[in-house]
Amino acid sequence: MSHFLRLVRPVDGSWMRMTNLSVVLAAIVDHGGVSRATLARETGLNKATVSSLAEELGELGWVRAGGQDQGALGRPSELLEPNPGRGVIIGTEINVDYLAVLVSDPAGAQRALVIEELDVATTSPGDAIERLAALMRTGLEQAAVAPADVLGLGLGVPGVVDVDRRLLVAANLGWRSVDVDDMLRRAVHGFLDEDLPVLIENEANLGAVAEQTYGIGARFEDFVYLSGELGVGAGVVTAGELLRGTHGAAGEVGHITVDPAGARCHCGKYGCWQVFVSQGAVLDRFREASGSRDGARPGPRPEDILAAAETGDAAAVETLATLDRYLAIGVGNLVEMYDPNAVVLGGFYSTMYRERVDELRTEVASWVMDAFGRELSIELSTHGQDACIWGATGGMLRSLIANPRHAAALDGLRA
Amino acid sequence: MSHFLRLVRPVDGSWMRMTNLSVVLAAIVDHGGVSRATLARETGLNKATVSSLAEELGELGWVRAGGQDQGALGRPSELLEPNPGRGVIIGTEINVDYLAVLVSDPAGAQRALVIEELDVATTSPGDAIERLAALMRTGLEQAAVAPADVLGLGLGVPGVVDVDRRLLVAANLGWRSVDVDDMLRRAVHGFLDEDLPVLIENEANLGAVAEQTYGIGARFEDFVYLSGELGVGAGVVTAGELLRGTHGAAGEVGHITVDPAGARCHCGKYGCWQVFVSQGAVLDRFREASGSRDGARPGPRPEDILAAAETGDAAAVETLATLDRYLAIGVGNLVEMYDPNAVVLGGFYSTMYRERVDELRTEVASWVMDAFGRELSIELSTHGQDACIWGATGGMLRSLIANPRHAAALDGLRA
DNA sequence: TTAGTTTGTTTGGCAGCCATACTAAGTCTG
DNA sequence: CAGACTTAGTATGGCTGCCAAACAAACTAA
């Protein structure tokens, strides 16, 4: 019953206003500085309407007058720009061996970035989140921003996050069914606002959001962001929207089967993709192929394989070729399944293919059935290691822009 | 530039009205007969607004007064119901060996169903579409409906259809880059309205739409409809929306690699999923396994395998076990990638698993990495062979409901 | 200095939703 | 059976918010 109701939801005047505020604010943030007349042309809204919306955005503190812009002819325009005094967004990340906090403003300017190494797998969720909260204080101090000026908080975790912001599982942290939202709010209690907007999302998904908001993904309506560190994960954007699925686990591609005869994965299945292409798997293969002559030395790093391959080292060359092949098989599957415009290589892969994208493009071509002349780009991430925190920030920014009236930190404005 | 603008589009009063007309019409179609008061409660719109919207829907011919409904207490309500005289939707299908036309009204009542066998692979696109147009005339005659009363036309094809309704490729028909929209409009020129709304979509995608609109899919927000005849295709619904991808090829899962050591597919790759689980592959395997003792007999049908397995025939049992295994591997991949609530077995699979779903459920469980207690149903299609035409109809219906003012066939109303 | 061009504001009108009051049509109770 | 109660639907008036058009402002060009 009621399946058609899902088509759309009813709309009233206040929703209309809110939507149009969003549209104009988004355009202003996007341009950085833009006149009312241009906004009217670009959005299709009436000039008078744009003026009214811009005035409200000014009162809300989102927007301020910038400089003037003199065209070839006519009255010069007054530029509207995002108000840097509006507040900041905190983007954070909990990963296997570090915590990270980024403080930035809605225009995308970085105010502070702090990182703390931590073996999260041996830390309880509660403790890790406490330390993350402490790191946020440090970040705000460095940025010289008062806690009351925080507009929203984003957090990326290497696990599956459901629609209620519960972390269902994070295999590499050893966490299961953790109410991260609740813990986070407790940890920042008395420090940040009680009902601060909070976004919690999977790390690969946020990588995709980072590329979509601040990076190369802005060029594509449908793309797959591929990230691999200990496991392999993908963030999928289709029709401009992040694909989440029922549990938020869409794009958890590490355990797709690419070869049932492959080695056993720790998940119990055989031939999972990440058995072939995760960072750990690749480094292991390289170590084995190069023999145990340097058994005492610390494990190789990704760069070591690239450097060795440069010199013609057989083990390195073979390792890279195998990676190319299995990465291409999996990417081929992603392409057939999601039909994206582009695949963006992030994390480990952005390191491994910085100079070798063409090799991968060639290999992928032979593993994608293309009967109709696909448009498919394979690109390198523009964010590298920082993708997750920028995605946490960008996701929060989108959420704030979608609700310009509900933003926190209005106290200063009211006073 | 302008990536944030994609968040939402600006809204004005007429858009608001249109949206609310849609909401109310959708609810009326969905219920079949419902009072204004109930509509107000369910949609959250004001009673007065619902009355006004309902009046306009009446003027547009979409809705008429049905009977009365006396509750336990109070004034009886007047039921609003879809107007069966509003017109009909034609849902059609071009498949490898037949054409099909379904005539039905917006309430979902079937008025006529005609099917014509045709070896489409040896027929040119133009000829096939001409014959489809002829079949539509037959269907309308059988339904005793005038061509002017056709509200919209949907067509399903076993191929990739892009956003401009071009058929990019249909391997099993041997068609490539066919402007089906244009051909169809020419074929019905002078018979159906010049600017009749037309929907052209991939067959598996329409299977998903059929289940979503009229079948078991209505229970799920995210599900994958799996259809297999000559190839294997999936229609994916996420967040209540059909996933199409850049070229409309999302869910074309027949050529994902499930075993690089597998047999060569006609596409040139090795170990494509459809090499293991398509109807043709399964029948072939059964034939080989049962030996060539009956080489002269016509090939087995799907039912023959099931019947043989019932009697304990070793070849049949082995064939089914292999199908279970490889179907489960692929379904596992789909589940990891799309994270659906449900997988709906359509086409060939709805035949093969009608009595054996539990076997597949068990097998799938061992090929899905489930670290967090997934909710996943595996269900049989409710539509079987007719999924595609009902999907073409349902898709067109959704499109009409989304634009209640733009519907065709208003001439009769105006006169 | 005047005409032309572009920007942004002001004014008035209109569409559309909502709250409220009211009418309509039934059931329930004493 | 009359009056209280309940629910459905309509009518009225108000408010919000968009738009069109006129206007004021600020500049260039001749």
What does this structure look like?
The structure is a homodimer of 415-residue chains. Chain A is of the alpha/beta class and 415 residues long. Helix content of chain A is 40%, strand content 20%. Chain A has 14 helices and 16 strands. Chain A has a 5-stranded mixed sheet with strand order 6-5-4-7-11. A 5-stranded mixed sheet of chain A has the order 14-13-12-15-16, sandwiched between helices. A 3-stranded antiparallel sheet of chain A has the order 1-3-2. In chain A, a hairpin with a 7-residue loop joins strand 2 and strand 3. The longest helix of chain A is centred in the last third of the chain and has 25 residues. Chains A and B meet through helix 1, helix 10 and helix 13 of A and helix 1, helix 10 and helix 13 of B. Chain A binds a DNA duplex (30 and 30 nucleotides) through helix 1 and helix 3.
Largest sheet of chain A: 5 strands, mixed
Structural class of chain A: alpha/beta
- Report strand % of chain A: 15-25%
Indicate the mean pLDDT of chain A. 91
**How much helical structure, as a percent, in the residues of chain A?**
25-40%
Number of helices of chain A: 14
Largest interface: A-B, 86 and 86 residues
Oligomer classification:
homodimer
Instruction: Give the strand order of the largest sheet of chain A, numbering strands 1, 2, ... along the chain.
Output: 6-5-4-7-11
According to DSSP, the number of beta strands of chain A is 16
The radius of gyration of chain A is 23 Å
Shape of chain A: globular
Instruction: Give the termini distance of chain A in whole angstroms.
Output: 49 Å
